[in-house]
């Protein structure tokens, strides 16, 4: 049996941050990114506000990730620059279930 890594999610529980999310192009649009993110929500403090930084609205690279984050309840926050590239922070308030 061959095991394949098709997606990767890196979080910082200390900073309540999604640091990195990637899914192999052959496995995109299958819900893998959504499932990785939903699973990660259980790992954070239930009272925390999670942050993630992605491309800005006017950047074509941001269409899919922005749609994904919004579909999971993230809202747009401040415009930022990361490594000299224009980005935008998104936030999601977790609530104890």
From TrEMBL:
GO terms for molecular function: acyltransferase activity, transferring groups other than amino-acyl groups. InterPro entries: Acyl_CoA_acyltransferase, GNAT_dom. Residues 1-97 form the N-acetyltransferase domain. CDD domains: NAT_SF. PROSITE patterns: GNAT (PS51186). This is N-acetyltransferase domain-containing protein.
